[in-house]
Every structure is written in C-alpha cells, then in structure tokens.
From TrEMBL:
Keyword Transcription regulation: no
InterPro entries: Peptidase_C15-like (IPR016125), Peptidase_C15-like_sf (IPR036440)
UniProt source species: Prymnesium parvum (Toxic golden alga)
Family annotation (Gene3D superfamilies): Peptidase C15, pyroglutamyl peptidase I-like (3.40.630.20)
Identification of the protein by name: Pyroglutamyl-peptidase I
Keyword Nucleus annotated: no
Source domain of life: Eukaryota
Length: 283
C-alpha cells in the first residue's frame, strides 16, 4: 500500500493527471446513456402523437422552465391557423432566458381538446410543465385577447366558432337550452389560474404591437377554444396540480385568442405571447 501511495505521489509531482479506476468506463457509459435518451426522444416525437413530446425531456432542457403552448390546426375554410403558426414559431426559437417552449398542435375536435387534460389527469401532484398557454384563432378579433374564464359548455360542431359564449342569456343551469355541460358535476365557470396581476396594461400598449388590443375577455365562446380551456383548468383543480419546478399554488393556465395574420404577423404575435409567458413564469 505504501509503494502504491509513493508511486501515485511521484506521478503527480511529474505532472501526470490523477485518474481513478473505471473513470473512462463511466465516461463512455454516460455518453451512451445520453445517446440512447436522445434517440428515444426523437423516436417519440417522430411517432406523431400529440401528447408524446412531454413524455421525455432531453437533458439540455432539464432544470429550465417548461411551458406548453398549444395551437389549433386549420378548421372550416382555413388553410392555415395563426394559433398553430405562433405555437410552432415560439418552439422553433429554442430555449431562451431559461425557458423552453414545447408546441403541441391539436385538431379542432373533441379528441384534440381532451389531449392536455387527459395528460394532466395522469400526472402526480406536479405537472410536467410550469405553465400552459392555449392559443386559438378568432376571425372577428381586433387584437390579442386574453381570456380570463372558461364556461362549463360542451362545444358543438353545429355552432359557429364565433358564436357568443357564456352570458346572462346562458344560465349555469343549461336544462332546456341548446347548451350541454362539459361535466354536470363541475362549476359553471372556472377562472384562469395564471397570475393576472403580472399582465399589466402597459404591456400591450407598446408601439411594437398593432393597436387596438383587446386585453381582457370573460367570454371564450362556446366552441372548442372554450372547451379546451375549461377542461385543462378542471384537470388542474381536481388534481391540485402545481408547476413542475416552483411553488405556485396551482399550475398557471391561460388562453389567448389571436387575430388574423393580416392584422398581426406571426412574428409580432409570437413576441407578445413570449412576453405573456415571461410575466406569468416570473422571468
């Protein structure tokens, strides 16, 4: 033992680097682990399932704030949907300022609006994300519109997407009306869990964004935009889900209606949504 210690000291005096048995083996093992994980992530994403990208995060994204941004695919006469384009644009920018955005493109149907809520219902007390921002298109919108509440109203393919949503004419008791509840046992309305006090009015008054901007709205309509918002909020409340990496009481969930791209470009709208994300995640 003494000879081994003396030899080690002599080698160190000569400038030889100190190494430990198995050092190279562990190094190569780590490389193989990273490679396998990366391949699995690529495979899962390439399989095309809308809920698969969050199943496995690559190592370079761990420790950062994770935000899910959903955008609906084209529907009706639309050939493109600004919501889908903006979600994809935000995700394409990669991680910045400690925030990584995952885009999820959803079909405009019942299966699409159940995707996120179903994923959350299978989560433990903490969500896979730190915030969720749903994006939808509103053809008559005059600007970006933050929805502050969702109604317990089931979407109908026979109802116009721009039809008015909950109001004094749509009581919580929908018996005898054309409206059906998403869940008969759930509340009539659910408010956004995002911290609205951080989304102050000077934000949309910037000259960088077109005017006018309708910041607040309590009527998300009676189509799938409202339904996905309500279903996600209901899953958060029922699961008492908190953000993945910090200690907010509930996972922030927000819905934003976007105007046509002729009114606000994809790049401009993406910049506004990024600022909203920065505010609600305390960046």
């Amino acid at each position: 033992m003494g000879r081994e210690a003396s030899l080690r000291e002599a080698l160190l005096r000569e400038g030889a680097p100190e190494r430990h048995f198995g050092e190279h083996a562990h190094g190569w093992r780590d490389v193989w682990v990273y490679a396998v994980v990366a391949c699995l992530f690529i495979l899962l994403v390439s399989m095309g399932g809308p809920a698969q990208p969050f199943l496995l995060l690559p190592f370079f994204m761990r420790g950062k704030i994770q935000v899910l941004v959903t955008g609906f695919e084209p529907f009706g006469d639309l050939t493109t949907n600004p919501a889908q384009l903006v979600a994809a644009h935000l995700a394409s920018e990669g991680c910045k300022a400690g925030v990584c955005i995952t885009a999820m493109h959803l079909p405009v149907n019942r299966s699409g609006v159940e995707t996120v809520a179903d994923a959350l219902s299978q989560s433990p007390s903490n969500s896979p994300w730190d915030a969720i921002v749903h994006l939808g298109y509103e053809s008559v919108s005059k600007g970006l519109r933050v929805e502050i509440a969702a109604a317990n109203l089931l979407a109908s393919d026979h109802r116009s997407p721009s039809a008015p949503g909950w109001s004094a004419d749509v009581p919580c008791n929908t018996t005898g009306t054309e409206f059906e509840p998403i869940d008969p046992e759930a509340p009539c309305l659910l408010a956004t869990t995002a911290p609205l006090d951080r989304i102050d009015l000077p934000l949309p008054m910037s000259p960088d964004y077109p005017q006018p901007l309708e910041l607040w709205s309590r009527d998300a309509g009676t189509y799938y935009c409202n339904e996905i918002f309500y279903r996600t909020l209901l899953a958060v409340h029922r699961g008492h889900l908190r953000p993945r990496s910090h200690h907010a009481v509930l996972l922030p969930v927000l819905f934003v209606h976007l105007p046509p791209t002729s009114f606000s470009s994809v790049e401009t709208t993406s910049g506004f949504i990024w600022k909203l994300i920065a505010r609600i995640t305390k960046i």
